[in-house]
Amino acid sequence: MSTRRSFLAGSAGLLGAAALGGAAFLRPAPALGDAVRPAAPLSRNVHAFYYSWYANPQVTGEWLHWQQGGFTPPADIGSDFYPVLGAYDSGDFAGAVARHMAWLSQAGIGVICYSWWGRGDHTDRVAPGVLDAAQAHGIQVNWHLEPHAGRTSARAVIEDIAYIEETYGSHPAFYRAADLGNRGAYYVFQSLFIADWSPIAALRDEVIIMSQTTDVSRSQDFGGMYTYDAIAAAAGNPEWEGAGEWCAANGRVWAPSVGPGYIDDRAVPGNTTPTVDRENGAVYDRCWEYALREDMGGPPTWVSVTSFNEWHEGSQLEPATASPPGSAPYLDYEGAYGRTGTGAETAYLDRTAYWVERYEAVRAARR
């Protein structure tokens, strides 16, 4: 199942000239010591999808993405939740981005899968600062190759990988799988949109390129598989069995995606993607349980988490405020894992730390 992110990316430029007022609701990142629990042991096998497409006038000079759906940030944004950090800028490396890395550490997530929209895009321009912030917290970065306008063939993807390797490959935070030949990892979102992937087969000894599907017939040339969407798993029908078994039997990486829920009502008016209620954390737990089950191909090589901060789709682990600005009917994490008020804001980070520890224990016992 594809998501709405291609629509979101395409609309962002059209909405880039949205109103710049209301800066009073732009919240400075709290000091890193505030409400951040000690970092959990970091797992290099848990990869969280991370989005650096956000911008505000104070840092970048314009709004990017927060206005999605026709809203006027900072109080009114294209998300059904509102961040604790407000309508932040992904280029605020010492503030919002540093806080993100502290939160990821709290969750035990040792790798972010960085959403990259092509050379020269905002996500490309801020990547060096994100890599630096990740390094400061012991976190590594691999890459989520998005369907930008120039990504029309497998050859174009190979060129993108060559650019990323040349531009960022020497950075200390650049992820390479130490137990899999020290190869970099590249998740390809909407891989099914390209029919012929045969050119990448020759690269399997150099990099791990992941297809977004559970269809093994469409993954023969890839180094692994992931799902991104957690909607099917949340509904109790992930259909992961064959994919995990095939990856194990054929020397491929299996990285099923787990997530806490899904809602894009504000960001994508008239959407048809089903909303997945978080059920106070039960959905997230269910996804993790599926990922670890042997009859679902578990424990997998990696677990991918959808997402750390995809606010448009309401799949984020990043803390959402219990006291949003304005009068918009924002959701929050009230009741998640029995927590209330501001204590609920970090509920999904702490639950992730629990699952990361459990996953690593199961993974170690079965290998």
From TrEMBL:
It is found in: Golgi apparatus membrane. GO terms for molecular function: alpha-mannosidase activity. Keywords: Golgi apparatus, Hydrolase, Membrane, Signal, Signal-anchor, Transmembrane, Transmembrane helix. InterPro entries: Glyco_Hydrolase_99, TAT_signal. The keyword Cell wall biogenesis/degradation does not apply. It is a single-pass type II membrane protein. Residues 1-23 form the signal peptide. Coiled coil: none annotated. It holds the Pfam family Glyco_hydro_99. CDD domains: GH99 (cd11574). This is Glycosyl hydrolase family 99. It comes from Allonocardiopsis opalescens.
